[in-house]
Design brief:
Pfam families: PPR_2. This protein has 283 residues and is mainly α. It is built from 13 helices and no strands. The C terminus is likely disordered.
């Protein structure tokens, strides 16, 4: 890899931080962290200041090679530079200590992150919860879930599942099921929320049609229209609910928007309403 840099310099091409980071990433992915660090040091020696990506490559590489102490040492280096550590760097180092089941060190990095005015996110807490599970301390995993709520973060389903897995790992199925029931309760709440959003969306479509064509033409003058629309709303609800329940999509229902030149035939609206709108949910 050093030959690449030599060749570039020989051709009058000056390597930059992207060049060095690319070579660092190659050595890191291959597991040669000594070579990766050597390239990093060469970059600094050439007067090129490392960016966040370069530091992330080092941190992740050290964690993969089970050297969380060297990953942690980067924090001091970064604090002395113009690139202070961010949430990704802190969480990466925390994951390294969690993998080594050194939860005392993981929590020390967590508090160091808070002292640096960097706010934890769901990924940070999921990492800590998983770490305590690996350390066979599910009660600590549960404490992390409570701490998560105290700092104003709503636990994700993954967070609750990790606590349930932690209890199950030591054979306490009853405690595990206690958290699995929380996941089921959250799914029910999500169902209700989606149903309300869809009901509101369909109501907005009716209101838009009424405003465009007049209340008489839509409601009073054409009862069949509403019967057709009411029937089709069931199909709309079924199809859209399936979309929302598909976890791979991860869509969130937001305010419906009006799409021009799209018929409402799919909603069962025939007759006069031929250039109205469809309901589109944006992520």
């Amino acid at each position: 890899m050093n030959q690449v840099l030599t060749l570039m310099e020989g051709q009058g091409i000056k390597p930059d931080v992207v060049t060095f980071s690319t070579i660092m990433n190659a050595w890191s992915s291959a597991g040669f962290m000594d070579k990766c660090r050597e390239i990093f040091d060469d970059m600094v020696g050439a007067g090129i200041e490392p960016d966040m990506h370069a530091y992330s490559i080092l941190a992740k590489g050290y964690v993969r090679s089970q050297q969380p102490d060297k990953a942690e040492a980067l924090l001091e280096t970064m604090n002395k530079s113009s690139v202070p550590p961010n949430i990704v760097i802190f969480t990466t180092i925390i994951s390294g200590w969690c993998s080594a089941t050194r939860m005392d060190n993981a929590m020390r990095i967590y508090h160091k992150m808070l002292d640096s005015k960097v706010s934890p996110n769901v990924k940070t807490f999921d990492t800590l919860i998983w770490g305590y599970g690996e350390a066979k301390q599910p009660w600590k995993s549960e404490e992390m879930l409570q701490l998560m709520e105290e700092v104003g973060l709503a636990p994700a389903k993954s967070s609750i599942q990790l606590v349930a897995d932690a209890w199950r790992s030591i054979g306490l199925i009853k405690e595990s099921n206690r958290f699995l029931s929380r996941i089921n309760d959250q799914v029910v709440k999500d169902d209700i929320s989606v149903e309300r959003n869809l009901g509101l969306s369909f109501s907005n479509v009716m209101q838009a049609a009424s405003e465009q064509y007049g209340s008489n033409s839509v409601s009073g003058g054409n009862q069949m229209l509403f019967r057709e629309a009411e029937f089709s709303s069931v199909n709309l609800w079924s199809a859209t609910r399936s979309m929302f329940m598909n976890r791979a999509c991860r869509f969130r229902a937001k305010s419906p928007i009006i799409c021009q030149k799209q018929n409402l035939v799919q909603l069962g609206m025939y007759g006069q309403i031929v250039n109205s709108c469809g309901v589109v949910f944006l992520n």
